[in-house]
Every structure is written in C-alpha cells, then in structure tokens.
Amino acid sequence: MNHNFSRRQFLKNASLAAAGTTLVPQHLLGTLSFPPIQHLGVQLWSIREDMGKDTPGTVKALANMGYREVEGFGYSDGKMFGMPIADFSKLLRDNGISMPSSHVMFTSKSFDAASKSLTDSAKKAIDDAAAIGQKYVVCPYMIDEDRAAVADMVKVFAAVGEYAKKAGLRFGYHNHDFEFTKRGPDNRLIVEWLLHEVDPKLMTMEMDIYWVAFANHNPLDWINLYPGRWELCHAKDMAKTEKRESIEVGDGSIDFTAIFKQSQKAGLKYYIVELENYVTTPLEGVKRARQNLLKLKF
C-alpha cells in the first residue's frame, strides 16, 4: 500500500462514497481515488487510430471511462496529434484529464558530443513538456544503431536528464524486451548499463511489465535488485498463447497482484495502461484493462 496517500483525501473519498451512488454521476465514479492507485492513466498509443480520426471525441470517451490521466506520444515540433501542444493540453483539461508524462524520442542525434549539449529540437521538446505542466518526459525506445553504442547513449541520456531536471521535469526510459536480452561491450545487459551508468537523480525507469516478462525475466527480481528506480510502469498482460501477445490486464498470465504489492519498494507512482494487440476494439480494450486493474487487491 502507498502510505503517502493523505488522510484528507481518504476522508474526502469516503464521504463521497457514503453519500451513495445516486449523488455521484456514473462517469465520475472512476475518479474516486483509493489507495494504492493514486495515478492511473493510459498510454495514448493504445488508441492511436481513434486519436487520429477524432481526437476530441476520443478524449471525451476516455473521460467517460473514468480516466483522469493519459501519457502522450507523437510529439513533433511543438505539436501533438496535429495540435499545438498547449491546445492539446487544454483539450485534456477541459475533459478533466491531465498528462503527467509523454513519450519523446531521444537518440544519439539529439546530442552534440563536441559541445556536450543537446540539440535545439531536443531542448524544445523538453521545454514544451515543462510549459504544459508535465512531470515526466520518457524516451520510449532505443534504435538499433544506438543499442550498439550503449556506452555513448548513457551520456546522451545523462544530458537529457540534466536538461530536464533544470526545466523542472524528470526524465525516464521505457523498456522493451531487448534491454533484457541484448548486452553491451562488457557483457552487461543494456538495462544494467542504464541502471548503473546513468545517475538515478537524472533518469528514472518506466517498467513495461509485459516486455520484461516477454524477455523471460521476473519483474519482481528487478524491483528487488534496484529498489526505488521504477517510478512509472506500463501495465499490459501476456496472453496464454504460443505468441504471448499483449492482452488486457487481468486476462493473461502475469501476476500483477504480486508485482504491485511491491509498488512502494519499486518507487512506483504512475500506473499506465497500454495495449498493442486487441481482443475487441482499442477503446473497449483500455476500458476493460482499467476496470480489471482497479479490481486487483494489493
């Protein structure tokens, strides 16, 4: 349980619940935040086609499901989903949604080794995230050529983290499976390079629980080895099939209850639903994932 949950918030929620559901609109029931999940969001990549076709309508649909946070993606030159980022942020706020984090790509080309400085475009991405009140900017991936030069990439990430810190943000890195299978020049796993060589004050980790499990690692082992390093997570389950594709939380083989019981040890603050494969539709999928996650007892 997250012991940082305030007594005032608990009493507020308890009084709302005691008032009865007749006094609370159905679409607002999901806003009642009980411990241990204070921050439950959705990565918008999960519903990217819907966001592309009808951004306002899709944001409203998420609000009606009870989502009050999202994690963005697709930032480019001051815009997200074709809108100036300030306008997109306002659209979210108008629907009672905030965006604590977003995925922004940083590569070796984001850093000038000679001047030991980030490029202007990399700085702008961080500055724009800070301007709309984000708390995190997260690198979602490491391209093939950068994985082969992980010793150089830790310098890039340190520079991103330093600039983000000065801007009032926290920099994070989101894993896939290759960080837990591919090794650097000294035979350490890429994830070990990131955890050991980048100052924890400059970079946190966003554990994609599915991809850790897909790489045949136990997420709990990494929480125990590196406590406090995993401030965000992506929550998607693993189907009990030969392909082990992603599926809604609670419908697969991953023991999220056991993992989330260690949330305090992990340093976990933000739980973010994500889907890459769909049993029904993307919107129905993220709705079911949210409902299932809230039913977990930990």
Plain-language structure description:
The chain is α/β, with parallel strands linked by helices. The chain has one domain (39-295): TIM Barrel. The protein is built from 13 helices and 14 strands. It has helices spanning 7-18, 48-53, 55-65, 85-94, 120-131, 144-147, 150-166, 190-197, 209-214, 219-225, 256-260, 263-266, 282-295, and strands at 40-43, 69-72, 79-80, 83-84, 98-103, 111-112, 117-118, 136-139, 170-174, 204-208, 232-235, 237-238, 246-247, 270-273. The relative contact order is 0.12.
Jot down its keywords.
298 residues; alpha/beta; TIM Barrel; eight-stranded parallel beta barrel; two-stranded antiparallel ribbon; 13 helices; disordered N terminus
